[in-house]
Design a protein that fits this description.
The protein is α/β, with parallel strands linked by helices and 331 residues long. The protein is built from 13 helices and 10 strands. It has a single domain, classed as Glycoside hydrolase/deacetylase (TIM Barrel, Alpha-Beta Barrel). It starts with 5 loop residues before the first helix and ends in a 16-residue tail after the last helix. The N terminus and C terminus are likely disordered. Pfam families: Polysacc_deac_1.
Length: 331
């Protein structure tokens, strides 16, 4: 990583250390020997499934709502400082977050807000309000940096600083992390474990929680998987200078998410959703979230859980015999 990387400069990160060169980097993947491609696949893998035999209070399904309160950090990450781009993010703090919180209160639905530290520094009262109203705040990087492009030391510095900042602002130490890139660098897993996180919510290997495995070794880290299907940003994000345009009607997204919930309810599993206050918080989009919560609340046996609560229930399965969990690999 070069020193002109905006994420490192904004965070005041120390000198970068380049990773060791990969002797196969210049070799086409179809020429890789088996140990090379197998090593990449097995570096971070889904281990044992952690779906419990029953949910708390006999619930039929777990519903884990999450919101990534990125606000102004998306343009700031890339060194973009135009008022127009920053205003798009500011909408999330000025309008979207409050609307979301009011809706969650109406349905008595606790949620998890993953917040970049810079976003929390810009809007500390908002971060504290999340906790005050019974929600969870999780780590989402320092300035929504592209963590997969960082040197190991820089990535660890930023995550540690984000963890300390959120703890200072909210008075609660976050137990979970969602990486800004929804991905791991070669050093992310080691950093997450070293800093004591109990769960991650960045990977996509299952519908239900699972244990993360590193090179065949169970790590004890709970993964609460995400997916682009259950994220509002791919459907609604807009950039006037590129081909990035909203391509789905809100009502169509409602249908997709409702079908996802219905399937999770039938399976007795988890319905996890990722949204952003500056995206879902617009009037015509908040309507579909309200209708979705009407649909969800119309079912018996729904457990609304923060990601921390869900991870705690999943983590309890680590002490159970492996046979009681779903297998590592599905046929």
């Amino acid at each position: 990583m070069s020193h002109d990387d905006p994420a490192a400069n904004a965070a005041g990160a120390g000198p970068s250390r380049s990773p060791a060169p990969d002797p196969h980097a210049a070799t086409p993947s179809w020429q890789w020997p088996e140990p090379v491609w197998r090593g990449h696949v097995e570096a971070v893998r889904a281990g044992r499934g952690l779906l419990p035999p029953r949910w708390p209070d006999g619930a039929r399904v777990a519903v884990a709502l999450s919101f990534d309160s990125d606000h102004e950090t998306i343009p700031l990450r890339d060194g973009e400082t135009s008022p127009g781009l920053l205003a798009q993010g500011e909408y999330g703090a000025r309008k979207g977050a409050g609307r979301v919180l009011e809706l969650l209160e109406r349905y008595s639905a606790p949620a998890t807000f993953f917040m970049p530290a810079v976003s929390a520094l810009l809007h500390p009262d908002e971060a504290r309000r999340y906790v005050r109203e019974g929600h969870e705040v999780g780590v989402h990087g320092w300035i929504h940096e592209r963590n997969t492009l960082l040197a190991a030391e820089d990535e660890k510095t930023l995550i540690r600083r984000a963890l300390e900042t959120l703890t200072d602002i909210t008075g609660r130490t976050p137990t979970g992390i969602r990486t800004p890139s929804w991905d791991f660098s070669d050093s992310t897993l080691e950093t997450v474990l070293d800093l004591g996180f109990l769960y991650d919510s960045s990977l996509m290997a299952d519908d239900e929680p699972y244990e993360v495995v590193a090179h065949g070794r169970p790590t004890g880290l709970v993964e609460i998987p995400v997916d682009w299907i259950r994220d509002d940003a791919p459907y609604f994000t807009m950039d006037r200078f590129t081909a990035l345009r909203p391509y789905t009607r809100p009502r169509d997204v409602l249908e997709i998410w409702r079908d996802e919930f219905d399937a999770a309810y039938r399976d007795g599993g988890v319905f996890q959703l990722t949204m952003h206050p500056h995206v879902i918080g617009h009037r015509s989009r908040l309507v579909i979230l309200r209708e979705l919560l009407d649909h969800v609340s119309g079912h018996r046996g729904v457990w609304f859980a923060t990601h921390d609560q869900l991870a705690g229930t999943a983590r309890d399965q680590l002490g159970r015999p492996t046979a009681s969990n779903s297998p590592t690999e599905q046929p």
